[in-house]
Structure formats: C-alpha cells, structure tokens
Amino acid sequence: MIIWKDILKPISIFVDVRSTIEAVIHHFADQNIDIVFVTEKGTLIGYCTKELLLNQISKASDLTQLIQYKNDILKVPQYSPVEFYHNVSLMIGINAKEEIVGYTTIEQARHHINELRLKDINLLLHGAGVGIVRTNVDYQIEFINETAENILGISSSFLLLRNYKTLLTNDKNLDKVLEGETLISVNSSINFKQISGNFYPLQVDGNITGLVHVFFSREVFEEAVQELDFVRNLNSDLQAVYASSQEQILVIDGSGRIIRVAGMFLKDFWKVETPEKIIGKNIDEFSKNNIFQPNVFDLCKKQKKKVTAIQDSAGSSRVWSVATPVYHEGKLEKVVVLSRDITQQSSSLKDQSEKDADQALHNRQEKNNKEKRLVYRSKKIEQLVIEIKRVAQFNSTILLEGESGVGKEVFAQKIHTASPRNNQAFVRINCGAIPENLIESELFGYEKGSFTGADKNGKAGLFEIANNGTLFLDEIGELPLNMQVKLLRVLQEREVTRIGGVRPLSINVRIITATNKDLREMVNQGDFREDLYYRLYVIPFRIPALNERKEDIFPLSIHFLEQFKQMYDIKKSFTPEAIEVLETYTWPGNVRELQNIVERLILLTEGEWIQREHVLKYLYGEVKKKKKQLFVLELMPLKEAVEELETQLIERGMQKYRTADKLSKVLGVSPATISRRIKKLK
Ligand SMILES: Nc1ncnc2c1ncn2[C@@H]1O[C@H](COP(=O)(O)OP(=O)(O)OP(=O)(O)O)[C@@H](O)[C@H]1O
Question: 4-106: what fold?
Fold first, then answer.
C-alpha cells in the first residue's frame, strides 16, 4: 500500500497573498523552483506555478500587481493511503498536529505511484529472471530493470531515452500496443540476445502513455525446460533405482563435472570424507590420479549407452556401478552413476599383514582356480570369518553345520587356506555321494591285489593323500554306521592301515566335517554314533542361511555374474531393478540356488541387460506354472513341515502383496489369521 508520505515533496517557498508579481518572479529565479505557496495571515490558501505566473505577466500592465493564485488544494494526513479526487490539482500532506509536511501535484503523484508499483513488480520479478522495459508513446525507454540489463547485456545508462522500437527486432507492429493491444509470447532479439515476452499498453487515466515489455531470456528459459526434462527423467530413473539407501547416486554433467551426490556416500571409494569435496570436480581427476579405475563416465560417453563395471579404488574399496547416459536433442546432457559397495566387510578391519596374507592367498587362488572365493558383506559372516581364522591356526577338528548350499565347503577351504597347512593338500570327500562299498577304500586306500577289481599297484587313501594337510568330510551324516566305527578309530589313533595292509601309517591330518542334518537328532535316533559325534563336535560353526544375511545376496550375485561372464565369454549385466528382485527372494536353496539362477539368467536371457522381468520369470515364473505342486526335499515331522510351509507362504506372500488383507485373498484365509501368524512369526 502506498501512502502520501511516500511521495510528498518538501515545501520550500511560502509567499504572502499581498506579494507582487515582481517579487514572486525573483523567488522563481533565485530558488529555481516551479511552485510557490500562498499564505494569508500564516495560513496556506493557495499556490502559484511558473505557468500561472507567466500567464499573469503576459496579461499584466505592470509587475507591481498582486499575484493571482489557485486554491484547488486538498489537505491529506501524511500516513493515509494515496487516493485521487476530482477537481483537486494539489495535495498538501499534514501531520497529526495539522502542520504542513509536504506537497505533491496530482500529476507528480500519479507518476510516482507508477514508478513505485514498477519497483515492487521489479523486485518480485527479479528473482524470477524477468526483464521489464517501459517506454513512453515515442518508444523512448523511461524505465529498465536490473534483470533486463543483465539479459540484454546493456546498461540502463545506455538504454534510457533510446528508441526501443528501433533497437528491437521482431515481426510485430508495436504501434498496435500503443493503440491498446496486448501482444503475447513475442520472440524478439536485441543486441544479439534472444528474448521472449509480452507487450502491454500502459494506461494512465484511460490514456495510453507508453508500453511495458515483460520478457525473459530464451536461452535461460530453454535451459530451464531442459533441466525440467532432465529432472523428470532423472526422477523416474531414481525412483526405480533408489529403492534402498545402500546406493550412491552420482550425477555428472556432459563434461565430466560432478553435479550431485545422493543416497549414501562411499567415503572409502573416493578417499575423502564428505560429498562436498567431490562436487564440482571433474571425474577425470579421480581416475587419472588412480583414485579408482575404470572411469565409468568415460565408458558411458564413448559407448553412448548404459554401461556397468566393477570399479576398484586405490584403497581396498570395490564398487559395482551402472552408468546411464541422459541425452537431450542428441547431446550428452548428464550421466547418472549408481554404485553399490561390494567390498568385503572385513577388509576395512584388516591390518597390513592380513592384507598381505590375503594378497598371497589371492595369488594362489588365481593359480588354482579350483579354490573358491568366499564372498560376503554381512556382519554375520564377517564375525564367522574372524572366528574361523582364529581356530584355523590350531589343529582342532571342526564341524560345519548349515542348510544345503550355504557354502560349507567354501568355509572348509577358507579354514584350510587360513591355517599353517595351507601349502599342503586340501582333500574333500562327499560321504553321501560314494557307494557304501567304496568308501573304505577311498578313505583308507588298499595294498596291491587286496580285492578283485582293485588297481594292481594298490592305492593311497584320502587320509594318506591329505597327510599334513586338511581332509574335508562333507555330508558326514551320510556315513554308514560301520564306517563311522573305522573313522572313529583313525581319529583316536591318528593312524590308518590300508585295506589288505598290515603296517599302520601314522597320519597328521586336520579334519573338517560338514552336515546339513541335525546330527544330535541322528544320535538320538541311533543313526549316528555318539562317540564319533563328540569326536567331531569339538568346534562347531553354524553357517547361516542366505535368507538370514540378505546383505550377501548382492555381492554374491555380482560375483557369480562375473564368474559366468568369464566362463562363457558373454557380456551381460544386471539392471539395478533386477538386483532388487534377487534381494527380496527368500532363497530356499541358498547360495547354490543363487549361483544356478545367475547362470541360467546369463545363458538364457536375450540382450545385454538382465532385466527385472527376466529375474521374476526365472524365480517365480516356474512356480506359477507348477502352481499346485509342492516338493518335499527331506522328511521331517509333519507339524514342523506344516509350520515351515506356513512361514514360507506368509513371508513370500507379504513380500509380494505387502498387506495382510491382499495376501489373505490369495491364501484363502481371513486377514486376522494372517496377522496372527505374522505376530507368531515375529
Ligand atoms: N560365500 C560364498 N562366496 C562365494 N561362493 C559361495 C559362497 N557360498 C557358497 N558359494 C558357492 O555356492 C555353491 C554351494 O556352496 P557349497 O557347496 O560350499 O555349499 P554346501 O553348504 O557345502 O552345500 P551342501 O550341504 O549341499 O554340500 C558353491 O559353488 C560355492 O562355491
């Protein structure tokens, strides 16, 4: 709201009503003013302007005549809002004590108010990047805001009073604006700058006094549209990939400059503490200084498509990255890189000697690719590895328990490689896979000619082969009872005698056994010897099911992907959405099932990318087809089996349908039943 005080001017000269024309002429000449105020006995009664005085002079016979004055004056409180009245040409502002504080002519007041309004609008529009130019009816520029100066690249001192019509180039007739027309969305150029905006007639008291041009830079506008487009694309990209907070999302502009980092920040990877330290830098800097390799931005730019790579950083960090290019009108606008850490948990806890040992181990593994790498990120496995490494130093017998496919054999190998025996043999035998009549000769060997069909030179048993090394007896629960006795004897006496032989050989073997059975229960049932059980159950470790350590699914998936890519010489990768499906599956077959699924996905899907739909099809598609079939892998008490089935149905169902209400419809029970069961499960 504009008040009178905002636009009042101070009164400089008062003259008495009895002043002569000559005296007033002196005032005008001496003070260089346009108006004098006329008083009578100290009270303001009127005013006399230069024009009025000149008029009097032209008609007066002599200059000693008294002045004439006008009295169309209105007194207004200085703090009241500006309003205009008919038949009044001059406003006098007064304060609360009725003292005169200033004046304004109506004409000046209107001009002032327009100016103030424009200033307000200007302030408002400045932030929005809108330029304003106002001209009079001769197209002379009378006002130009700061934004307009910036957009046009010309200062107001140059532009003021210049003819706007001749400076501007467009295909519209601006005279129409002065006739009262508004021109909308007109593209113009001035000083080689492209602008777009509207022309409005400027009306004062019903008269057109000029035009106002409100505009913005087309360049900036187009950038904003592109940005909007990009954000839209990015949003949908991010929506899809940003489901979990374990990802680092990097936005890099077309020149390689890092613009944004979202999600988690992989400090170990960048070797800096905060995202601010990398924002604004060129990604090239990091790869050139070998902070990490390869540079996925470069790959993406060169190949002009979405790429994926495993990036290793100078430290111990390793990430899996997918780089997606964003194009606008054929030009590379941005690259969005999504990365996930696949560094093994423990590496950050390792000291240098451990790292060296790991490197040595890795080199050996490279040579002997039969040896399997233990891949993990979960705290559970990290803890297990720490414990396993500790006991690996001693010769104690170790029992590995866990569901089928959890990786018991890989752990057995890990124990061996972490032990002082790591330069000796690691020998594995699957007790469930060898015919009963051959187990004995396999384990203990035989002398020449000891039985029909035997090698005529005789043969060393696995105990002998593993001497000084490690013997891994897998599926120990499958060992027949008679063999259990013999094994017990070997373990007690630490010597073996070949079949048909007489001389016992002393052996020094570290025994690791594994089972997916409940050995204690087998002892209770009389299927496993109690004395052997206690011999083997010296240091037991339970390997958790994959379902209990979901953090491992991602690095394992990438590990198998890389393994099979190499094995089959196929180029293929997962989309982040595909990974998400793998991570939410329950994996009843554990790591082995995951490994199989990855192999099938690599071999059987078309195209370079393994998509979400492919994974869904391989994980759930078949289940749908064989909808009504249930497979029982092993015998167990009925009550336990029913509970297990219920648990699996509810877990899988809740993952898919999210609410008890929806799931209840699929399972054909009431939502209350589902909720009760969920509570029980928790
Ligand atoms: N943590 C892991 N890192 C890498 N590979 C793994 C891991 N765990 C399991 N695997 C792989 O998964 C497959 C199954 O593992 P493994 O044979 O060790 O399981 P298991 O528990 O011994 O199974 P079973 O009880 O049926 O003998 C193997 O090919 C193994 O290499």
Answer: CBS-domain (3.10.580)
Check whether domain 128-221 has CATH 3.30.450.20, yes or no: yes
Q: Which atom of ligand 1 is nearest to the CA of 374?
A: 3
Q: Kindly give the number of the ligand 1 atom that is closest to the alpha carbon of 412.
A: 18
pLDDT tens digits along 163-173:
999 989 988 99
- What are residue 66's DSSP bridge partners? 20
Do the domains 245-343 and 128-221 match in fold?
yes
Residue 401 tokens read as: 């328990």
361-373 pLDDT, tens digit each: 555 444 444 557 8
Residues 416/428, Cβ–Cβ less than 8 Å = no
Whole-number pLDDT of residue 674: 80
Residue list, ligand 1 pocket, CB within 6 Å? 372-376, 402, 404-410, 474, 514, 516, 556, 559, 591-592, 595
Tell which one of 344, 371, 400, 409 to mutate to probe ligand 1, the residue whose CB is within 8 A of the most ligand atoms.
409
Class of domain 351-542: alpha beta
Handedness of CA 447, 452, 454, 460 (dihedral sign): negative
Q: Are 385 and 417 in contact (CB under 8 A)?
A: no
Which residue has the CA at smallest separation from atom 16 of ligand 1? Answer: 407
Report ipTM for this prediction: 0.98
The superfamily in CATH containing domain 245-343 is PAS domain (3.30.450.20)
Compute the distance from residue 588 Cα to the ligand 1 centre, in Å: 13
Per-residue model confidence as pLDDT tens digits over 203-240 = 877 788 899 898 888 877 666 666 666 555 555 454 44
Tell how far the Cα of 442 is from the centroid of ligand 1, in angstroms.
23
- Extract the runs of DSSP E, i.e. beta strands, from 282-330: 292-293, 307-313, 318-328
The 3-state DSSP class for residue 225 equals helix
